[in-house]
Amino acid sequence: MSQGICYLVGAGPGDPLLLTLKGKSRLGRAQVVVYDSLCNPELLDFAPAGAEKIHAGKRAGDHTMPQQDINALLVRETLAGKTVVRLKGGDPFLFGRGGEEAEALAAAGCRFEIVPGITSAIGGPAYAGIPVTHRSHNTTLTIFTGHEDPAKEGSSLDFRAIAAAPGTKVMLMGIERLKTISQSLLDSGMDPQTPVALVREATTPRQQTLRGTLADIAAQAESTGFKAPAVAIFGEVATLDPKLRWFESLPLFGKRIAVTRTRSQAGALTERLRELGADAYELPTIRTEPAPDKRAFYELVAYAHGYDWLVFTSPNGADAFFGAFYEIYRDARDLGGVRIASVGPATAARVNSFRFTVDIQPEKHTAENLVAALAKETSVENLKILVVRPEGGRDVVSDQLSKLGAIVDEAIAYRTVPETEANAAGIARFQKDGADLVTFTSGSTAENFQKLGLPVSSSTKFASIGPVTSAAMRQLGMRVDLEAETHDIPGIVAAIEKFFQREKTPKPSGG
What we know:
Elements: E1 5-10, H1 21-27, E2 32-35, E3 52-55, H2 67-79, E4 83-88, H3 98-107, E5 111-115, H4 120-127, E6 141-145, H5 159-164, E7 168-172, H6 178-187, E8 195-200, E9 208-213, H7 217-224, E10 230-234, H8 241-244, E11 256-259, H9 263-275, E12 279-282, E13 286-290, H10 294-302, E14 309-312, H11 315-328, E15 339-342, H12 345-353, H13 367-377, E16 384-391, H14 396-403, E17 407-418, H15 424-433, E18 437-440, H16 443-452, E19 461-464, H17 467-475, E20 482-483, H18 489-504
């Protein structure tokens, strides 16, 4: 039996991009992942598909699994020869009980490794525009926990020492006891006018910041229903966030957006929306499957060098075509002198990724404009053209080229089917939280979203990538609240940003 190992990995404060490269690498090796509630569930996608994922709970007042059971689980799985990742919010050694878990592993003779993470004590304030140290305000930092071992008699916190310590104080895991802790600091001589900031769900698009003073922050938190998980910052640096509030000032901050593209394609759109502050999540309604008639498709690919033009109507078609091409041939030159046309920049980029150049791409990214661009370039009469497209897709390109006298063959590269496996998390999220906006990048994404029968709020808006998608949405009886001017991912992102910016702009009063 191979020797097992347990990696104690810091998951960071919430933003999945704050996971370290080493943490991601170790997750990629995991056979077992034991994770806490405060870990972003998206991080589990970095683990292999077959890895066992065990939820260990651990929110304030709600422990799915007692600590001694977690210790025993880590030891048992590691001694069984498995690669175990213990994924812990923030940093495993900062109030994360990682030290206790490491001691249990060491006592059992298990191999283990510590992978530090970004702690919410620093990362949380940073996303709220609060530097925990600043030369003009402080040169020391005190970090303490408001959540102590309930088995201990009394508190081990020396509130007098904390109150007297110069510089910034950061408290983790103490929002439920904020009133008691604030009073203890006041009783210990801390200035009632000390600035305080509370940052809830830090580094995520759900982040909220509450500001006050030591004298009134507990009352504010109670009256506004400000709940955990949150970090508290005490000190002069808490006054800097209005001018350094970079994250909460992003144009789409706090907007909840559901992305309905296929799981394999949703990432680019989701990432761009998140960069603008949106709480974007994936709700894939479709997925692609290989060509229904693989033999017929491969025969057309093999003979592609015999055509005058090769026309791609989607990135998926380019992937399927060149995947098959390089199974058949080893040399790109085997494609011969065929010229290539693409419906839009995303498709062209995919063709370029296979080291081929696109000769024609219309300014407006529709099938009709693609045909017009081809006809403008050359007379297509009697030219042999291979159109690579999905099963059941619009046959505008083939029909119109045939009417112009071209000899057209169709290579059915793939088909789109309803997503039934990879959308459970997205459906649950939509049912729980809804969305301010749902994006549609094809008629099939809209059709299959509608088939899910999810409850949609009257305030939810629908975004379309272009006129073809918009027409399909209207045919389904759906509203089109905004449509991209350029029919690609940058175009729909720009349209969304413009739409919400317009919503924020005060309307001029009449009179």
